[in-house]
UniProtKB/TrEMBL annotation, chain A:
GO terms for cellular component: cell division site; plasma membrane. The keyword NAD does not apply. The chain crosses the membrane at residues 29-48, 54-74, 86-105, 117-136, 145-165, 185-201, 222-239, 245-261, 266-284, 344-365, 386-410, 416-438. It is found in: Membrane. The keyword Transmembrane applies. Keywords: Cell shape, Membrane, Transmembrane, Transmembrane helix. Pfam families: FTSW_RODA_SPOVE (PF01098). One of its GO terms (biological process) is regulation of cell shape. One of its GO terms (molecular function) is lipid-linked peptidoglycan transporter activity. It comes from Streptomyces tuirus. The lineage of its organism: Bacteria, Bacillati, Actinomycetota, Actinomycetes, Kitasatosporales. It is a multi-pass membrane protein. This is FtsW/RodA/SpoVE family cell cycle protein.
UniProtKB/TrEMBL annotation, chain B:
Residues 155-478 form the Penicillin-binding protein transpeptidase domain. Residues 52-134 form the Penicillin binding protein A dimerisation domain. It comes from Streptomyces tuirus. The keyword Chloroplast does not apply. Coiled coil: none annotated. This is Penicillin-binding protein 2. InterPro entries: Beta-lactam/transpept, Beta-lactam/transpept-like, PBPA_dimer, PCN-bd_Tpept. Residues 366-385 are annotated as: Disordered.
Amino acid sequence: MSKAGITVATADPPAPAVRHLPRRRGVELALIVLAVLLSVYGYCAVGLAQHGTLPPGAVGYGAGLCVLALLAHVAVRLRAPYADPLLLPIGVLLNGLGLVLIYRLDLETPGDRAAPAQLVWSTLGVALFILVVLLLRDHRVLQRYTYVCVVTALVLLTLPILFPAVNGARIWIRVAGFSIQPGEFAKVLLAVFFAAYLAANRNALAYTGRRVWKLQLPTGRVLGPIVAVWLVSVGVLILERDLGTSLLFFGLFVVLLYVATGRTGWIAVGLSLAALGAAAVGRLEPHVHSRIETWLHPFASIEAGEGANQLAQSLFAFAEGGVLGTGLGLGHSVLIGFAVKSDFILATAGEELGFAGLSAIFLLYGLLVERGYRAGLALREPFGRLLAIGLASLVALQVFVIAGGVTGLIPLTGMAMPFLAQGGSSVVTNWAIVALLVRVSDSARRQYDGQATR
Amino acid sequence: MTRHIRHAGFFCALLLVALLLNAARVQVVQAPAYDRNPANRRADIGRYQQPRGDILVGGLPVTGSKDTGEHLRYERTYTNGPLYAPVTGFASQLYGTTLLENAEDDVLSGTHPMLAPFPLWNDFTRARHRGGDVVTTLHPAAQRAAYRGLSGRKGAVAAMDPSTGRILALVSAPSYDPQPLSGNGAAASRAWARLNADRDRPMLNRAVRQTYPPGSTFKIVTAAAALDAGLVRNLGRPTDSPDPYTLPGTRTRLVNESKGCADASVREAFTFSCNTVFAKLGVEVGAANMRKTAHAFGFGDGELRIPFSVARSTFDASLDPAQLALSSIGQYNTRATPLQMAMVAAAVANGGQLREPYLVERTTRPGGSALATAGPRPARQTMSPSTAVRLRALMRDAVRNGTGRRAAIPGAEVGGKTGTAQHGLGNSGTPYAWFVSWARGDHDLAPRVAVAVVLEDARADRGGISGRAAAPIAREVMRAVLNSREQQPGS
């Protein structure tokens, strides 16, 4: 890069007033190598702790992860050279760590191996990432597909109703032996729809309509479609008993509405709606009611002599980790039982990596969200801004809902920890989110490149 | 719009802070409470993750650990379970630990803070170290002799070294094998149910956890009190004692098993175990002095640990003269563990100085270096040395000429006292047979062993049954100790 720059410079010296932004692809490469090395190290640590030898697949695992990450890196280098250099390495590290944790739990459950499938899904996810980065030259193209997005999202959300419930929730469909959670894909599509629709109508939302007391209510014509979509998606989710996702959509809706219109009234309306909904659902749905009871009294089942429930086991796992953790492969989070590799994957991280490791993971997510927000701030056109904020907020809310759930901060709602948890649809979706963020951040920085200083 | 994006970003940062604070709450602040929760199986898993330290007798481990490959990985094994069960107890994954397994659990399971390489290391890493070993004071030959002697009967033997307090043998019969209790499967529950349903109560440690009326063996204590109080100056002079003796303030007449007890001298009365003489002597000594001497021997002490607890032996403190008379011959409310009676014999043998008994010579790190060593226990003066010399003579005479003849060992000085204790309503129960004794080899400077034997099912009629049944068991235990060279426990 620099060499080429020098040759160009000698051949045709640019005007001194023009500033070239550093593209920072070298930083990205170095961070990716670090992320891969950390994951391989974790993989080896698990093997050493469990069997005293390096696991046989370490080389293959490392090489596979390395090749995937490098391919993604090449794609970014080719088509998004100005992209934020932190986004891809964070994705690689979280995905690699998730594979390590799942592999580690597989050793305790020999009958149920999830890591190979997760590796396949990760490959698909990275492939989708590459595809998006290569094919989607400009994120504004997505604006054209606003209504395609929303229809697809609604279809995806309604599909599982036709399939049998799994563990009390109708959120899976089975295709050719694979379990797919269409709701995961729907959330990206809905984010795109919200961003596009709000970008187009934000002025109408903010400034037209009747004024009731201190609240500026938008006209029904503008607000109608968006509330309808939201109501339908939430209604479907309650039917499917997937409250985590419904909470996620609601949060996304409120955040984007607030950012687009700047009306604090929306927050008040949103929060009161949320409180109302929560109260109603908590009262009416026994499934939800028991979740809230468990959250308030996680050890009630122990006192009742029925043994520790999943949340109590999860808390025990976190507590066992303490500050420094037991070390990879040395914990007993498998006691949680069902969903230990998916919803409760964070408990394994908390037990074996300790508060230090858990904080590091939270900060990684925080960094990912922060980079998304930064891209949103840097962009000038509203769709890109809202898209970046929407995608970053999706990650933030999802991490909060599930991490807060398994650590007893809020009632537990089943949801996948982005990148870490077992679940193919989730991994693929998260790679799509990172790809879109890469694309948006590339646009955000590209616009400043080559500009005259001052 | 920028401002509102910043607001939303601030909101996300708030969520992050909430997650971090809550994680700190769970993992740091609440962690100790969660770790202690009984439903948290991690403590159990960690505890059985490694082989447990061993209990050593005569330098050889009598315990082991077996890798089961299960979730709770290592199980306790015992090389000669029934022989050592009254010492080791059991270490069960279901039912906890008892006796030495319980008292030294921190060393055996590796949680003892001194097992850490550095101070406070455990607090920081919360790691578990390899378990250390526990070296006992037991004399293997004496233990085996006692176990053999009791085979097929109900009873207990306690033997100790009078000059140090080391416990040389601790046997309870019938015994049990603790190994089937080690695991956590159905077999362990079945073994537990079977042992608890057994009417012979094999898991009861009769040597330290069961008290019996000591009967005539308690006359040693009464004699010591009388001699110390100066009531008896000449052991050979006839006492003014009627036969039968009417208990003061009652019409109950106390009789003797043997003849010739009327006005017998203390020596004759001790040799032939005259109840009337000692009942009257006890009344003359008085409740206060009797109690003082009994407590000096260890009666009334509920705090004794060897290191597991020993049941309290009792000598009733508030007595009318009739009760005092009965208590002085080891009846009424007087009760003693076999170990307590071994302590009585040991105090006599050691010139009136009683060394507190102990069972653990030292605990060691896995490599064998000492973790803690039994220091010299404080000695307690139970009677004046001159009293002890005269009591030794009395006990020697009882073996030479009296009720304890079957305990005699050629080439050794042996002193002993038999006892037969009635119990049950109206003395309807099968009497308990006692024998307490000490022995000094002819080449030894001081007595090397003190023994107490109790048999619950002495079936023969009372005259001399204790001598017939219990004395030979004591003899074999004493012989086993005397036959060994100067013993170095644990080496």
